[in-house]
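Lecture notes, part 5. Sequence design as translation. It can be helpful to think of inverse folding as translation between two languages: the language of shapes and the language of residues. The source text, in structure tokens, appears below.
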């Protein structure tokens, strides 16, 4: 304005200054809500700010943190992905994305994201530790699926039992492993065992289509047609 004063530009500048003050006020409120652990309010305030400050990596990371605390990790991923692009060498964002995918049971995407972190810093302790865990689990699952394709059901069962030992903390892997063991037992003409394992899966996930189909096959082998 000092270099080129005009009425129009002065109005525009005043509008932008007012908006800027308003956004700073919202920012203070968002931080305060976050500190008070009112994550829902913080998200709502950050939504308003990010509608204007689209390229602010820190604010996206903060909103992602709120989503995680609110138990909505899938929503956190898109903010963290943006933050990983907006901020150079953002190993922390890649680590968090990988960790979320891992907790959600998507080991392949988790592996791909943690590799991005190690490309930026091969000595990153958290990423390296997560990488070893995911890589081991990924290899076991791939190997088990290969056995299933070859009809080597006993070997596949044994491999999926190893998966459950490798990751006892994240329930989704045990459920998936049991679902595949149920499939193998059914295919391997072991109906009694198959029914038992399929039922365990269906107690956790009553609408699991694969477990329902495999248990149905096992019931057929036992001539339990009504079931």
């Amino acid at each position: 304005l000092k270099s080129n004063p005009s009425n129009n530009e002065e109005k525009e500048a005043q509008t932008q200054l007012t908006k800027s003050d308003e956004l700073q006020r919202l920012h203070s409120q968002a931080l305060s809500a976050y500190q008070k652990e009112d994550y829902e309010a913080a998200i709502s305030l950050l939504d308003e700010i990010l509608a204007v400050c689209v390229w602010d990596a820190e604010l996206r990371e903060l909103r992602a943190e709120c989503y995680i605390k609110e138990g909505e990790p899938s929503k956190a991923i898109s903010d963290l992905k943006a933050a990983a692009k907006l901020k150079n060498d953002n190993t922390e964002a890649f680590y968090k994305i990988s960790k979320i995918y891992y907790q959600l049971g998507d080991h392949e995407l988790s592996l791909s994201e943690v590799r991005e972190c190690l490309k930026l810093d091969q000595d990153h302790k958290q990423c390296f530790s997560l990488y070893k865990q995911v890589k081991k689990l990924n290899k076991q699952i791939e190997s088990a699926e290969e056995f299933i394709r070859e009809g080597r059901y006993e070997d596949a069962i044994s491999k999926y039992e190893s998966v459950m030992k490798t990751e006892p903390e994240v329930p989704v892997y045990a459920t998936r492993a049991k679902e595949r063991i149920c499939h193998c037992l059914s295919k391997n003409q072991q109906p009694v065992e198959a029914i038992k394992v399929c039922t365990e899966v269906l107690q956790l996930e009553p609408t699991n289509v694969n477990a329902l189909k495999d248990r149905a096959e096992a019931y057929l082998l036992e001539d339990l047609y009504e079931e």
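The translated text above is only one of many valid answers, since several sequences can fold into similar shapes. The chain has eleven helices and no strands.
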